[in-house]
Design brief:
The complex is a heterodimer of chains A (307) and B (368).
Chain A: H1 2-18, H2 20-24, H3 37-57, H4 69-73, H5 79-109, H6 115-128, H7 133-144, H8 149-158, H9 172-196, H10 200-208, H11 213-241, H12 245-251, H13 258-267, H14 274-302
Helix pairs in contact in A: 3-14, 5-9, 5-11, 6-9, 7-12, 9-11, 9-12, 10-11, 11-14, 13-14
Chain B: E1 4-13, E2 16-26, E3 31-35, H1 42-50, E4 57-62, E5 65-66, E6 77-80, H2 92-102, H3 107-120, H4 136-149, E7 154-158, H5 166-183, E8 186-191, H6 194-200, E9 203-208, E10 211-216, H7 218-223, H8 228-233, E11 238-246, E12 251-254, E13 257-260, E14 272-277, E15 283-286, E16 295-305, E17 309-316, E18 319-326, H9 327-330, E19 338-342, E20 349-352
Parallel strand pairs in B: 3-8, 3-9, 6-7, 7-8
Antiparallel strand pairs in B: 1-2, 1-4, 4-5, 9-10, 11-12, 11-14, 12-13, 14-20, 15-19, 16-17, 16-19, 17-18
Helix pairs in contact in B: 2-3, 2-4, 3-4
Chain lengths: 307, 368
Amino acid sequence: MADEGRVGISTDAAPQALRPDIASGRRRLPLAWLGTVPFFAYAIAFLFVPAGAVLLGAFQDKNDNPTLANVRLLFNHPYIDAYKTSFEISIVTALIGGIVGLFIAYAAIREGTPAWVRSILTTFSGVAANFGGIPLAFAFIASLGPLGIVTVFLKNQLHFDLYGQNFAIYSKLGVEITYMYFQLPLMILVIAPAIDGLRKEWREAASNLGAKQWQFWRYVGLPVLMPSILGAMILLFGNAFAAYATAYSLSSGSVNIVPILIGAYYSGNVLDNPHLAQAMAFGMFAVLALMMLIYIPLQRRAARWAK
Amino acid sequence: MGYLELQNLHRDFGTVKALNGINISLGEGEFLSLLGPSGCGKTTALRLVAGFDRPNQGRIIVDGKDVTAVAPNKRDMGMVFQAYSLFPNMTARQNVEFGLKIRGKSKGDRAKPVDELLELVGLSHAVDRYPHQLSGGMQQRVALARALAIQPRVLLLDEPLSALDAKVRVQLREEIRRIQLELGITTLYVTHDQEEALAVSDHVAVMYGGVIEQMGTPSEMYTAPATPFVAEFIGTMNRLDATVVDGGTGEVEHAGMRLRVDAAQGRRNGERVLVLIRPESLELEAATNGGAPNSFVGEVLTQTFLGPVTRVKVTGSGTNLIADMSTARAAALPVGARVSAKIPSEGAKLISLPDDGPGLPVLDPDDH
């Protein structure tokens, strides 16, 4: 009997302690969801409503009548060129940032690398991945601009004229190089947990079964990492595709990318056509959606073993 | 010369001597278990044999060839890890055929041996499942089949059952032994579970502090432990710190009580010894007056039901003894009963202790 009593206490008492409503015998409406209200209010006000307005505005003319003219215009010069440039910058920085970032992250995490290397790299990456806009543009102008310290050093000390090689920090290549400053660290931050997940036993088992280092990566390491790599690269693509302030500060609008063009049409200093700007933003949604359409089946195939 | 030889192996990690000169010689087709508590060096030894680590000193010989400096992928050794070693992106079949694929075998050449091995480990029905779709026991079966697929010269098993539940452990260890005997493969098995080691091995080497304390057949290890540590580690043992008082008749004194132990005959009078008695060798009965000769009289402190037998703990005069007896007989000796525990003079073993040496070794209970 004594044992039965103890069992009764252990199973019934705990929920009562956590749920006073059970103890009192009254059922109350759960109120825990109230904690999420600020988040959803914020998201609705600053994400969903503006996004809805953009989508709606893309299909309206100046008098708010429905039209497809804005979207049709996107396929003409200079808008289609802006998409091309944006796409090229994004794909180049996503691919190079993704591949180089993967190697850097692996080098820092692999067995044998001192722990402090990873610690420093992770801290730096956390800062650098969020560094952008005017400060980043200024940093690159100060280092790789026509009178930047690196440019001057190369010219004076190594007799290498960077600007004599068709390079300019205000060019598309300059924007790509500058973007790498946040793309690389972002890749390192995103891929590091996935690399951590590669078990030592897999490498040892592969080696024990006769595999060389490259065979381990070919058959085990890369296939296991592939879903994470694809996901990280999509993130990098989106990160570059939507970047505005860095490119604008760096090139003063001379590099024709979609966000700068949208800004020009919205600001109304020279051009003023908010509905066209909204159509261009809609076009950006479409490009990202297209990328997702390519990504999802690839990711599904790469991760079929995890389902 | 044995098929697998570990000669004077040393491995240091900084100031820690993980292995301090171990020597093992194992015949072809034999099964040796390295048994010991955590940190005793058994896994280090196995990793040296696999080639994942290099010894500071010593040699590893397989079939007469020195493989100490050979890379792990060229040693032709199959290894089963503790857990989670299956490649997660491959099915059971792909895992098993991995080693053959690396060796350049065509798909056609791989199919038959892989099917046979999967059948051998009882997984013909699960060949297309990914590791996360298999239970822990099934995963270890696949790992075993994968290790065997390359027809290794030596099979290495690093606590392969430690992550499994008790019932599966017993079932799988029997299967490992069956397969090992069927294939006649030389096997080195690392475990901290003495029951497991005794159940499956031809030989057991008990390790402690980077050295081999004793190596022998399971029966030898159980019945004739050579050191206090082995006596403590293998099975349950009653240990009485005693002094030889008459080496002629084999009398020893423990806690003011004289006992006859055949193994003490011929010992030097005054020699400090450890009398070892297995719980199943003790005979318990209700005490009448002063008890029978060669008996220890005390009181039943606890009873632990173990199914067919009950473990009875008896205490008195500062000494604790454990006796295993049939559950039916133990019912007649309830907690608090005064009992007499007869020390079998012929069944007790003796180990010499240094006259001024340390007391009995005490092990961490978690290591058992």
